[in-house]
Amino acid sequence: VKALVAGIDGIINLHTDFQLEIPQIRIQVDLAAASRYGIKPGDVRRAAGAFIASEETGDIWRDGKNTEVHVWSMPEARRSFEPVRNLLMDARDGRRVRLGDLARVELVPTQNVVLREASSRRMHIAANVSGRDLGSVARDVQERLKKVSFPLGYHTEILGEFQERQAAQGRLLLISVVSAIGIFLLLQASFGNWRLTTLSFVTLPTSLVGGVVAAYVGGGNISLGSLVGFLTVLGINARNGIMLIEHYQHLERYEGETFGPGLVLRGARERISPITMTALTTFVAIVPLVVAGNIAGNEIDHPMAVVIMGGFLTSMVLNLLVVPSLYLRFGASRKDRPSGLQYG
Questions:
Q1: Which residue, among 166, 162, 244, has the nearest Cα to 203 in the 3D structure?
Q2: Which residues are paired to 55 by β-bridges?
Q3: Closest CA to 241 of 197, 281, 282
Q4: What gap in Å lies between CA 217 and CA 221, rounded to an integer?
Q5: Among 91, 147, 163, 178, which residue carries the largest CB count within 10 Å?
Q6: Which of 89-103, 158-172, 272-286 is least confident?
Q7: 3-state DSSP call for residue 170?
Q8: Is a pLDDT exceeding 50 seen at residue 342?
Q9: How many CA atoms lie within 13 A of 7 on its CB side?
Q10: Which residues pair with residue 261 across a beta bridge?
Q11: Tell me: the pLDDT tens digits for 34-48?
């Protein structure tokens, strides 16, 4: 698995679990040889286990304390594996047979620690990602892993930041849908006009164009921080749009302005200062996050700040140019519409 993953573009610092290999005696019973002597494979393994690691044979109770009694070989017999090969076993016909004639005894390296999770053995193959987005690298890893045939009971799982991001994106998608419905209902409650509500709602995604461009220029990675930035831009743009259109309606209803270009121009001039100040204040607040770059501890803040900065540029254009034009085209009440002009 490590060799396959190593060839993927964007993978850096690839390593397995930090394990030390220690020598261990491995005994593989020759079933045919054991059968000839009438010795069970389990008896061979138990005899070798008692010789190397001891075996409990009884208990001694004294003064209310229990002391286990173990059978074990002499310490000098355990300093190499030759004495294990020469260990004598009782055959069915009474002969004595060397364990080395019944099994293959060899010294092999093994891990010094057996790691388990949820009652299953595990081994981590970890890596960092650089130069590509995490999702693309994870998909390439998944494709490579399909080429690996694992023994029965073994499988692979991709964990870490990718798994957490997938779960967070699922929750964020659900929250986004609920938020979009809430924004639509708030627009309708503010405008009292389904036509204006629908048009304002449909134009909201255009404010995200700057955020998409900024994310592309900043590396082309859409991360969890980027998604939070998009939601932030969407919410602030909806707020600015509501305040602008409500100001138009206020000028018409309470200040005697006649619906037309004069109303729209006056409303835009009076709202340009708060909209611009909101954007500039936000810019000043997030500039340090953008300048700091994608450093350690800034993995979410940096992409979020980049998207917000780019999104606010298109949001200002939308609120100061697009929304006034749409209001002039579709915001007139029926009594204010010219008879010769048809509105969609």
A1: 244
A2: 71
A3: 197
A4: 9
A5: 91
A6: 158-172
A7: helix
A8: no
A9: 6
A10: none
A11: 999 999 999 998 888
